[in-house]
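Hi, here's the filled form for the chain we discussed.

Project: internal
Contact: R.S.
Residues: 170
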Amino acid sequence: MTTMESEPALDSSALIDLREIEQFLYREARFADEHQYDAWEALWTDDALYWVPVAGSLADPERTVSVMYDNRRRISTRLAQLRTGKRYAQSPPSNLRRTISNVELLGSVDGDIGVGANFVLLESKPRGVVTWAGRYLYRLRLVDGEIKLVGKTVLLVNNAEALPTLGFLI
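And the returned structure, exactly as it came back:
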């Protein structure tokens, strides 16, 4: 997945109103926070990729280790496991709430829209509260007039350290 951190010229045919994009990102975060897995899964395209690289490396995820590198089928499998309620890392499910900020358009790649945003996520479990923070890189596409997720890369601030169990939707 292309990271889109550079700022190529925007393709005017692919532009969506920034406010509409922000609302989509906030909704995606709320679905994840509230464990609304069916609604969250419906946001993804069939060719989607969900990537959490290790140690800040944006090296080819096909050739390097990642915390998570899911294609659309693996996203469905991960969600099916979460829906059972029997995932040890999420029993009981974490209480989650994230804040998304600094939303910016990064350009167009193959007709898709690149968007970056910062996030802070609080995860509360019986063991205590864990703070996750970083940057999201999204690849969005208009499909039948609706914004869909083609890709989501999660660049964790502390990704060079040993990470606690990541058994939820980051």
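Let me know if anything looks off before we file it.
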